[in-house]
Amino acid sequence: MNKTNSKFKIQNLRFKINFVEPFPSVNPLGLGVQNFKSGIRNLEPGILNLKFIFFLLLFSCNLSAQQNVITFDFGSYAVSLLSEGQRQGNTGILIGATDEMLKECVPDGKFPNATNVFLVETGEKTILFDAGYGRNLFDNLKKLKRSADDVDIVILTHMHGDHIGGLLRDGKKSFPKAMLYIPRPEHDYWMSDKAGNSANARKVIEMYKDKLQLFEPGTIEKPQELIKGIKSVAAYGHTPGHTGYLLESDGSKLLIWGDLTHAMAIQMSYPQVAVTYDVDPQMAVKYRQEILKYVSENKIPIAGMHIQYPAIGNVRKKASGGYEFNLICECEGR
Fold first, then answer.
1. What are phi and psi of 36, to 5 degrees?
2. Is the pTM of this model over 0.85?
3. How big is the CA angle at 205 (ends 241 and 285), to the nearest 5 degrees?
4. Using CA atoms, how far apart are residues 297 and 274, in angstroms rounded to an integer?
5. Is the link from the previous residue into 217 a cis peptide, with omega within 30 of 0?
């Protein structure tokens, strides 16, 4: 177990706090309590108000939560969050949420939200999952000392604008060397007359047509391998071809579930709540319930495109019904 020293200097007063990892990140979702196993000791030389100390600890965690990039190791894979930004969501997007649900889960009418991209480096391939809006994507890659030319494969969960915006720059491919993987049902939907506002999706498909790989997703019970160590999992409803991806390396697993949720604060306790962005809300609920059940029973960590920083965590079934989500500790990242 590692020991970490945090030193603070406030005017002329110096003190040191030693805490033992895992140091818990703040969980503004209010979903589940991360156990404080940390001990505060060695205050020197003054006596500080305990509330003030607690404030400093929260403040230090919140500072790190403003970052856009963090990397975690899953087996031999390096999985990096590249966040396009943290924000607050509004309950106006929710479908099927009762007043009682809202009062319990989001009493102030807002909930944490984000737009995320994930970079996975397997040792053989550098793979980007979605491309966000493209606002911070390339700056975030630079923070990892990577460029667009380093990306071998881009895999899409679906083709909404906040997931494909970074694929084109100045009318050209942003990732000229990368293969583009799109679930076939998703591709067919955006190329059909059923999809509204499909111009951007069609332009992406046209620009990457020489690099395009279409595939049929598997199921959560029987995921379909795309490339070594990465399998596809149908998660339809948000869009007709919305798909998640199961990573497996050296006995470790991680499910990148895309937009399976948009409002963790309420959709964990009440998976039956859909959002206005869902093309088929009933189908989205069906797949959300199936996948939540599977990952909680099999203890598979998940990563989401609209989960607040650091966007990766664990799902647990609650005895009272519904589920509980705990963010992974930032201390495990780099």
1. -85, 100
2. no
3. 15
4. 23
5. no
